[in-house]
């Protein structure tokens, strides 16, 4: 009897163990294509850029192949030039201006949406989705048309309002004006994602918490500071981190409108690295600047995330 029971139970246990092994491997098989794409599109180019940054790699090496080891010479050249640090300061100013405006406007829009009627809320959300779905170069072209010197809508409207000094005003010839236009473009493209994400988070907060806060006499600012923000703090931290990454590495909008000009007034680190590699054919120095850009971005994100986790733990 015992032998018969053992013969019956043992195959069942073997089958169950095999099914568990297959079940354990199945999640890894599902994420394998994504990991392979990540390795090909991100990891390999980044590793290749780091390798080139330690080599003497210019147009001749690109054609012939092979490159001599240069050690830290490219990093020393980049860090030793005043132009690099001017670009670094401009990049941090660019990132701070965009992220602050994006988060403030997105929070205001997200808080406004629940107070709108159903049709108006649907219209506003549809408009934001369409804005978010607009291709980068298409949106950039629209902004170029808006601020065109002679046929642009902005100049026409300002002149109609009585500001005759803006007649035929060339916005993209002034560094400060070009910088402001690029900030407006990036904010316009980024607000929909952040606002809709925050609005989705707002819908998860129980209404009883707001009612209790109002009964206790809390005003709108107190309700936001004591109810809304503490609950959505992780979501605010996540969106801020994503916006820092996207803004810090922004390239297409700047290159399409100004190519870093006029006079380098809109050249951020990604644009500066591309200028070095494309114009001077200094692929080694451009790779060094790109690597430094990644390291700076990681340092900013690490500080931000550590602070966010400390506040959550407290």
What does the model show?
- It comes from Microbispora siamensis.
- This is Sugar ABC transporter permease.
- Pfam families: BPD_transp_1.
- The chain crosses the membrane at residues 25-47, 92-113, 122-147, 235-256, 285-305.
- The protein is globular, with a radius of gyration of 27 Å.
- It has helices at residues 2-53, 59-64, 73-80, 82-112, 118-133, 136-146, 153-160, 175-202, 207-215, 220-248, 252-257, 269-279, 283-313, and strands at 55-56, 68-69.
- Helices cover 78% and strands 1% of the residues.
- The protein has a single domain (88-313), classed as MetI-like fold, CATH 1.10.3720.
- The model has no long low-confidence stretch (mean pLDDT 87).
- A two-stranded antiparallel ribbon has the order 1-2.
Keywords for this structure?
single chain; 314 residues; mainly alpha; MetI-like fold; two-stranded antiparallel sheet; UgpAE/MalFG_permease; transport; cell membrane; membrane
Offer a quick outline of the entry.
With 314 residues, the chain is an all-alpha fold.
Q: What's the total number of strands?
A: 2
Radius of gyration: 27 Å
Q: For the report, how would you describe the main beta sheet?
A: 2 strands, antiparallel
Average residue-wise pLDDT: 87
> Quick one: overall form?
globular
N-to-C order of helices and strands: HEHEHHHHHHHHHHH
Counting structural domains, the number is 1
Structural class: mainly alpha
Low-confidence stretches: none
Strand order of the largest sheet: 1-2
CATH class: Mainly Alpha
Instruction: Give me the CATH superfamily.
Output: MetI-like
Q: Estimate what percentage of residues fall within beta strands.
A: under 5%
CATH fold label: MetI-like fold
What is the helical fraction, as a range of percent?
A: over 70%
Give the name of the CATH architecture: Orthogonal Bundle
Q: What's the number of helices?
A: 13
Transmembrane segments: 25-47, 92-113, 122-147, 235-256, 285-305
Subcellular location: Cell membrane
Organism: Microbispora siamensis
Keywords: Cell membrane, Membrane, Transmembrane, Transmembrane helix, Transport
């Amino acid at each position: 009897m015992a032998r018969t029971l053992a013969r019956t139970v043992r195959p069942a246990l073997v089958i169950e163990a095999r099914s568990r092994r297959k079940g354990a491997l199945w999640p890894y098989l599902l994420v394998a294509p994504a990991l392979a794409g990540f390795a090909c599109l991100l990891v390999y180019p980044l590793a290749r850029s780091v390798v080139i940054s330690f080599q003497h790699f210019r147009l001749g090496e690109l054609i012939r192949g092979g490159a001599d080891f240069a050690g830290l010479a490219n990093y020393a050249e980049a860090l030793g030039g005043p132009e690099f640090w001017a670009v670094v300061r401009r990049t941090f100013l660019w990132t701070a201006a965009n992220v602050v405006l994006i988060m403030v406007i997105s929070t205001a829009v997200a808080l406004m949406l629940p107070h709108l009627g159903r049709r108006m809320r649907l219209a506003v959300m549809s408009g934001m989705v369409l804005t978010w779905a607009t291709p980068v170069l298409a949106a950039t072209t629209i902004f170029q048309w808006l601020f065109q010197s002679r046929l642009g809508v902005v100049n026409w409207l300002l002149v109609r309002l009585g500001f005759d000094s803006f007649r035929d005003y060339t916005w993209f010839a002034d560094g400060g004006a070009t910088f402001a236009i690029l900030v407006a473009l990036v904010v316009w493209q980024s607000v929909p994602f952040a606002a809709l994400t925050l609005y989705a988070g707002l819908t998860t907060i129980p209404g009883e918490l707001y009612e209790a806060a109002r009964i206790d006499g809390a005003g709108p600012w107190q309700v936001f500071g004591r109810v809304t923000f503490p609950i959505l703090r992780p979501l605010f931290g996540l969106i801020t981190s994503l916006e820092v990454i996207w803004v810090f590495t922004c390239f297409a909008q700047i290159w399409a409108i100004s190519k870093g000009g006029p006079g380098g007034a809109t050249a951020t680190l990604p644009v500066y690295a591309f200028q070095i590699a494309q114009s001077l054919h200094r692929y080694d120095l451009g790779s060094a600047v790109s690597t430094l850009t990644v390291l700076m971005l990681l340092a900013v994100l690490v500080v931000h995330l550590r602070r966010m986790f400390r506040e959550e733990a407290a």
